[in-house]
Amino acid sequence: MFRYLDKKLQMDKAFILELVKVAPYALYELDEKFKKDKEIVLIAVANAGSIVRHIDEHLKIDRDIILASLNKYHAYFDKVHGLVKNDKEVILEAVKKNGLYLEHASDKLQKDEEIVFEAVKQNGFSLKYADNSLKNDRKFILKISKVAKQFYTNIGKSLKKDKEIFRNIVKIHGRSLAFADSELQNDKEIFLIAVKNHPSLLSYMSTPKKYRKDRDVILNAVNSSGTILAYADKKLQDTKEIVVVAIKNNPMALEYASKRLQSDKEIVKIAVTKLGKSIQFANKDLQGDKEIALLAVHSDKTAVEYIKYSLLKDKRFVIDMLNKQPELLKYISKELRADEKIVTDVLKRNKGLVKYASDEIKIKYQALESNNFQRNFKEGAWKSFTIREIESELYASEPLADYPKTHN
């Protein structure tokens, strides 16, 4: 579009400066002298970093241009890092975008606390490229342990035994405990902090088995992730207090409760009230319990697949179930799908469910609907219907002699 502008505007630098602020890619169409103008190119690159790949070769290696490109296109740094590896300002901006760029910094800057801190904060793995003096500096590691993740694999060996450092680390990243010294892994205080943040620690093969038998540890874990109950000792899976906490967090944790507690009506009631399909893990007798089954299907329609089929033959139960979940008409017994009162009550709320009624009721209902519709037509009520409603209602019926010829 630029080439269609007035020639004077095309050569007006003040206009060009304003243009590249809002349309940086217009740089491609500018006169050659403007493509080499640092002031113009700098604005364009600051607004669309990838343009740096296509600018004048001399400007590609300009420090200010490289710095500007980092905001929008920091990948360009991969091509020019050799030119700026000693430039603290450029390296600092680069590691803020991608901590791993620390690899390209000079040895001197890899010792610079400010640069290494920003790099590790952005990407913990970048500590790998820091100078060893910082990897073993307790004060520095303690500082980054409060804000960074996944740097602990590269800290000095002696610091992997430091309780204060790992107390901070596991608060942010619980599974980091797997990289601590074995003495710290066996420290209950540290483990409790870690498992609260990362309950799946209990599933790790390296986790000391004593914690799976520890009431405090398991209670903290299931409070954060109920299904971690699967890794608890059998005795704790049979402890009511722990199982209740687990299923309140995730009702599906009922699967890992002991057989005794899967038969506990109070526990199962808590689970199915929150998530009906958890009834699949309840004792068979409770799957046939009317109160429990009704709570389950009212909470979750899919629970109907796990309750005893005998309940779907029970008229009182079916009426109560359909009162809240009419869509479950298709699951009830064949005999009850032929019960006019039950089916009629459902169809009052959703007549589309007639397809699940018995054949006899379908025929009666369709005939009744057709008769009502024809009567409404004769009385002039058809004027309030849409054409689609008219067509669908009359689909299976005989043509009416007095069917209106217009729908105005």
Q: Using only CA atoms, what is the Rg? A: 36 Å
Largest sheet, in brief, is: none
SS elements, strand count: 0
Strand content: under 5%
Mean pLDDT: 85
- Supply the helix-strand structural class: mainly alpha
* Element string (H = helix, E = strand): HHHHHHHHHHHHHHHHHHHHHHHHH
Number of helices: 25
Helical content, roughly?
A: 40-55%
The rough form would be described as flat
| Beginning-to-end CA distance, first to last residue | 51 Å
Low-confidence stretches: 377-385, 394-408
Structural descriptors:
408 residues; mainly alpha; flat; disordered C terminus
Structural notes for this entry:
The chain has 408 residues and is mainly α. The protein is built from 25 helices and no strands. The two termini are 51 Å apart. The C terminus is likely disordered. The chain has a domain of 51 residues. The longest helix is centred in the last third of the chain and has 20 residues.
In a few lines, what is going on in this structure?
Helices cover 50% and strands 0% of the residues.
Task: Draw up the topology in text.
Elements: H1 7-10, H2 13-22, H3 32-35, H4 38-47, H5 57-60, H6 63-72, H7 77-84, H8 88-97, H9 113-122, H10 132-135, H11 138-144, H12 163-172, H13 182-185, H14 188-197, H15 215-224, H16 234-237, H17 240-249, H18 259-262, H19 265-274, H20 284-287, H21 290-299, H22 315-324, H23 340-349, H24 359-378, H25 387-393
Helix pairs in contact: 2-4, 4-6, 6-8, 8-9, 12-14, 14-15, 15-17, 17-19, 19-21, 21-22
